[in-house]
Amino acid sequence: MAELPIWSKASLTAQALGKTDPLTRAVVPPIHLSSTYIRDPDNAYSSGFIYGRPDNATVRETEAVIAMLEDAEGGALLFSSGMAAATACFMALEPGDHVVASAVMYWALRNWLVTEAARWGLEVELVETDDLGKLQAAMRPGRTKLVWIETPSNPLWTITDIAAAAEIAREAGARLAVDSTCASPFHTRPLQLGADIVMHAATKILNGHSDVIAGALCARERDPYWERIGRIRSGSGAILGPFEAYLLNRGLKTFFVRAAAQARSAATLAERLSAHPLVSRVLYPGLPQHPGHDVALCQMENGFGFMLSVQVKGGETAAIGTAANVRLWKRATSLGGVESLIEHRASIEGAGTPCPPDLLRLSTGIEDPGDLFDDLDAALAAAHR
Ligand SMILES: *Cc1c(COP(=O)(O)O)cnc(C)c1O
Question: Which CATH number fits domain 255-383: 3.40.50.720, 3.40.1160.10, 3.30.70.1150, 3.90.1150.10?
Answer without folding.
Answer: 3.90.1150.10
